Amino acid sequence: MEDQQKLQQILSQLEAYKAQIELYQQQVDAVQASIAEVKVLESTLDDIAKKDTVETLVPIGAGSFIKAEIKNEDKVVMSLGSGVAVTKTFEEAKATAAQQKQDLQDTLDKLFKDLQQLTDIVAQLSPQAEALMQRMQAQGMAPMGF
Q1: Rounded to a whole number, what is the distance in angstroms from the first to the last CA of the chain?
Q2: Which whole-number Å values give the CA distances from 132 to 6, 27, 30, 52, in the listed order?
Q3: What average pLDDT score do residues 126-144 get?
Q4: 27-71, pLDDT tens digit by residue?
Q5: Which residue of 3, 48, 109, 124 is most buried, as measured by CB atoms within 10 A?
Q6: Which residue ranges make up each domain of the chain?
């Protein structure tokens, strides 16, 4: 009976760790998407800064766009979040974007580190669960719930 309780405990732990891994993977995906957006911002700022005007598509809703011309006025309105925005020069905007990208990369690195730790724990627990199941089967005991 002791083996069966230990097996149930390990299986519960594995299930919890696997749920955490899935959550971390979703966070990794979101951070990677944010990094990609900041890279697009940096590229766009570079393109606009080099020209007097730039033609672009502006979203007008429901997946529709209209062609527009951006006049380089050396100002960028950047969102700070919570509906607050601030006007910055192109250079300030580029510096802000670079800092955002670095912060996101730091977050991504930490997520990968934590994800690796969780994966290592699962890799350690899985063989223990398998060994317990084999031992129980060899003793003629069927694990409950299987």
Answers
A1: 15
A2: 8, 33, 38, 71
A3: 81
A4: 999 999 999 999 999 998 888 888 888 888 999 999 999 999 888
A5: 48
A6: 2-49+89-138
Contact 72, 51 (CB under 8 A): yes
Residue 6 contacts residue 107 (beta carbons within 8 Å): no
Q: Give Cα separations from 12 to 5, 9, 129 (angstroms).
A: 11, 5, 11
Mean pLDDT (the chain) is 90
pTM of the full structure: 0.78
Measure the CA–CA gap between 133 and 7, rounded to whole angstroms.
Answer: 7
Identify whether the C-beta of residue 96 lies closer than 8 Å to the C-beta of residue 38.
no
Give domain 2-49+89-138's CATH architecture: Orthogonal Bundle (1.10)
The secondary element (H helix, E strand) that includes residue 102 is: helix 90-138
Alpha-carbon gap, residue 141 to 128, rounded angstroms? 17
